[in-house]
Amino acid sequence: MKIKSPHVVRPNAKVKLSRFSTDETGGFKSQQDAEPVLAKHRKTLIDMQDVFYASQKKTLLIVLQGMDTAGKDGTISHISSGVNPQGCTVTSFKVPTPLEARHDFLWRAHAAVPPRGMVGIFNRSHYEDILVPYVHKLSSKKTIRQHIADILEFESMLADNDVVILKFFLHISHEEQTRRLQSRIDDPDKHWKLSESDFRERKFWDDYTDAYELLLPATSRPHAPWFVIPSDHKGYRNVAISSILVDVMKSLNLKYPKPTMDPTKIQL
Ligand code: AMP
Ligand code: MG
User: CATH for 17-256, among 3.40.50.620, 3.40.50.300, 1.20.1070.10, 3.90.1720.10?
Assistant: First the structure.
């Protein structure tokens, strides 16, 4: 998979997130300003998803990671708006249930990868199973290394089985997180989004940054690249992601399957 994007992470590159922009606007003055471009991408994606679903040749797996409030939910509504819901699954990865915790590493992630023809969106992902133990020092360095190796093998196996994997790290600044949390506090309609874990985990911002700086280059590969998407501005974030999706979908060059019967011979 060859993708031209200024946001792609080179395999094993040295990543310092502070050197990656969070506030790129792409020239859009507001989220509304980006809407015409986004609408064009959306139309293309809807058309291409129809072929994707019909052909049943590939799975598209979209992994979304980011700090709390980075915009994973908003990105999902933008990516999936208009697409055929029958061709799409969204899986949100929460704190593992007792059953999930008893299973092997990657069990719940593998079970959530949809079959060929489908687009699967991971709202958080198997990466959470390394991030949280890394930040809270629940795993040894050896286990973290092993789990990184397991993820590399897992994603390579998926790619060998026609799964196209795209991983997006939604990159916001600490100040932007402050603004977003404050607006959740100020707006009664957003109170339901407030969770204690957001405020607890925010104190570990630097540790999460360290963890991502380790994980992104260690697991970005041509068949499963990571993109660091500047996400302070939602308009730019949406356009940056949708343009990568359009490029990748086009590059797959999928066709509608041949009909199983000759339509010219059908008499009603
Ligand atoms: P949210 O995405 O805001 O609904 O929050 C989900 C919460 O589940 C976040 O605080 C995640 O860090 C947490 N979470 C997800 N996966 C794991 C995991 N494997 N281990 C521990 N916590 C997790
Ligand atoms: Mg949250």
Answer: 3.40.50.300
The residue count for the chain: 268
65 C-alpha to ligand 1 centroid (Å): 11
Taking the C-alpha atoms of residue 219 and residue 225, their distance in angstroms, rounded to an integer, is: 8
Domain regions of the chain by residue span: 17-256
CA of 263 relative to ligand 2 center, distance in Å:
51
> What Cα–Cα distance (Å) separates residue 74 from each residue in 78, 81, 107, 117?
6, 11, 27, 24
**C-alpha closest to that of 164 among 27, 55, 13:** 55
pLDDT above 90 (res 255):
yes
Look at residues 130, 214, 220 and name the one whose alpha carbon lies nearest to residue 168. 220
Q: What pLDDT was estimated at residue 80?
A: 87
3 pLDDT more than 90? no
Which residue's alpha carbon is at the smallest distance from atom 3 of ligand 1?
68
The dihedral through the CA atoms of 134, 140, 145, 149 has a sign that is negative
The confidence score (pLDDT) of residue 30 equals 92
pLDDT band of residue 39 (cuts 50, 70, 90) is: very high
Pocket test for ligand 1, best of 197, 198, 199, 208 (most atoms within 8 A of CB): 197
Q: pLDDT tens digits for 231-251?
A: 999 999 999 999 999 999 999
CA distance 249 to 60: 9
Nearest ligand for residue 200 CA: 1
Distance 195 CA to ligand 2 centre (A): 6
